[in-house]
Amino acid sequence: MTEVGRRGPKRNEQARIAILQATSARVLENGYDQLTIEGVAADARVSKQTIYRWWPSRSALVAECLAERMLLTEFFVPEDSGDLRADVIRWLENIIGFLGSPGNSGLLRSLLIAATENTEVATHLNERLGMWEMLGERFTAAIEADQLPADTPLAELGDALMGALVVRDLRGAGFDNGFAKNLAILLLPA
Amino acid sequence: MTEVGRRGPKRNEQARIAILQATSARVLENGYDQLTIEGVAADARVSKQTIYRWWPSRSALVAECLAERMLLTEFFVPEDSGDLRADVIRWLENIIGFLGSPGNSGLLRSLLIAATENTEVATHLNERLGMWEMLGERFTAAIEADQLPADTPLAELGDALMGALVVRDLRGAGFDNGFAKNLAILLLPA
Amino acid sequence: MTEVGRRGPKRNEQARIAILQATSARVLENGYDQLTIEGVAADARVSKQTIYRWWPSRSALVAECLAERMLLTEFFVPEDSGDLRADVIRWLENIIGFLGSPGNSGLLRSLLIAATENTEVATHLNERLGMWEMLGERFTAAIEADQLPADTPLAELGDALMGALVVRDLRGAGFDNGFAKNLAILLLPA
Amino acid sequence: MTEVGRRGPKRNEQARIAILQATSARVLENGYDQLTIEGVAADARVSKQTIYRWWPSRSALVAECLAERMLLTEFFVPEDSGDLRADVIRWLENIIGFLGSPGNSGLLRSLLIAATENTEVATHLNERLGMWEMLGERFTAAIEADQLPADTPLAELGDALMGALVVRDLRGAGFDNGFAKNLAILLLPA
DNA sequence: ACGTAACCGAGACGGTACGTCTAGTCTTTCA
DNA sequence: TGAAAGACTAGACGTACCGTCTCGGTTACGT
């Protein structure tokens, strides 16, 4: 990855940071569709070319913001208290609390749109929400502990959990109090 | 609503239809982000002003296309064969088949993006995908027939079913063969 | 002109007046190039069609305003005191004073532009500024009184007088104190 | 004024020329009021933004065309044959000939309209028509040669000459044969 | 130490689409 | 049937960004 023996100045790290910060700020404030390269360049006091040199697209900027934890700063890892349902409920409530907090309104929606344009964004989104790897691990552990039938279709289970979150958020309906609990009861055995 | 006794010419219905048809065609062909007012106006052989007179935004056009059933043309009503699981599986497979058919690739993604911009689109989308009107009835019937516990949280059930579809589609992962069946087994009692 | 025996309502004189008043007001305030049919219609609370029905063009409106003395309200007739030069100087100063008064800044320019589009405006402009008919009479009287050589080319004399006013105004240079006097001395014998 | 050491690409001179040529051509062909930025951009094969970047308005384009001698190409310098009247008559006839030639019909009117919108156009127009620079010199020479009284108000003389031309042209009356001669006789001593 | 390759800012450029405005024409309803 | 209200096509307006490009200046490695 690191180009050895190349001439010329090193990549300006300050510029890179400034660009990602400007990107994050704009996504958080106005959403992904209001994100413009020119705006980021202006905010970061950087020339457009410096952005285009390193990122191929708007969505790539967002992907790197995710990778750098400048968006979705929290990493949601389900605990393993022994009680699967309780753990999943807590995990859901954490995410719901994060998405509902003042600074993050519309963030998931923005990221979903970016994710439709860019697979990397989708990957990071899944990772950060702890969806596939972390939740998967928790489920495997649950199967081993006989809290979950061995033939549970884990992919579908994950999609249903995540999907319920997503469609609620997309609909703009907000999350009522019992949502996490009801969903967990519905999908997981006691 | 109906303005009584107003002077002046009536709204040109042909123009309205042509605009919505052009909108639908462009969304289906190139997706929502390639949809431009100028393009629609050109296709519909109408002046831009006629579009701006009646619709405030790009997304409002799409919302009306949905309302007029020019997008998501097929309406999926689950049957009531007495076997809830089987009915839901068939319903899921219908939708999957529709979403996967050549003309509709990316359609859901487009509509979801439009839905993030416009609450009406979101509403129509929820309605159209049959969740509330159609699946709701089926679930109520199932409760009455003791195929579903009376305390099942129907909203969460619907979100989980629909959401699983949505995230799969968004992820671009495609639907494998067992998806509908696995999902139904996961969410519904035998 | 008057259509005899025709049925239906008569032309609405109030509308006509309102249209001309709106036209005059707009020309005086913002100049001829800011004059729009839509603006006049809005000001006069009249439909566009009512304007188009009776006037073929923007400039025709201005022409009628001139004819109705709603623009260039003062009529400049040179006196005949026996002293031609003095009379012309007074006449020039009257016009200069009028053109320079607060409400009329740019008016001549506006009317000149309208005149290039519409012969009627040109005619009215000439009439109203007293040029041809009124100044012509004064010159004829001067010839008879031996204050002006009989072979003076009156058309050129008038053009030179009027033209000097016009180019000064167009240039936006303003009229200095001696202008009227100098011009009269230059063009007329003592 | 000249930006020293500025970075970035230089202004494209070819584009500038093409824009001014397109402007000139359109003014000559269809007059100033038919001049549109979009038309110029299309003719010059240049984007609209390139025009708006460098010129604030339609009239500024015309002003620069005048400054670049792409309009009113011929520069009328009065000769000095020793006979002031004869020189002025020839000068007037040259201008009349130019204004009356097929390609230039309406040109003066166009420029006058532009001049009412833009002081620079007015200035260039005065300059170009030779009044101040060129005719002024001829008059000074005439005063030195005792062909013109030393106290002749040159500004008014110029305005009268130029103004007579202008109002004739604006009136659309055309120039009859004796015009130049009569005017010169009227304004200048033998 | 010098050359040179790459970085960076600034910003011009051809484009596309935006949403607005006005021109004229045409249609409908009221009085 | 005149006038109002206003829908309609047409097309220019001036703005915002796009992604590419060209400069001039500046590192900092490699010979």
The fraction of residues in strands of chain A falls at under 5%
Give the overall pLDDT of chain A as a whole number.
Answer: 92
Question: What's the helix count of chain A?
Answer: 10
* Distance linking N and C termini of chain A: 48 Å
Unreliably modeled segments of chain A = none
Which range best describes the helical content of chain A: under 10%, 10-25%, 25-40%, 40-55%, 55-70% or over 70%?
55-70%
* Secondary structural class of chain A: mainly alpha
- Total separate domains of chain A: 2
- Main interface pair? C-D, 36 and 35 residues
Compute the number of strand runs of chain A: 0
Overall geometry of chain A comes to elongated
The largest pleated sheet of chain A is described as: none
Q: What is the subunit arrangement here?
A: homotetramer
Radius of gyration of chain A: 19 Å
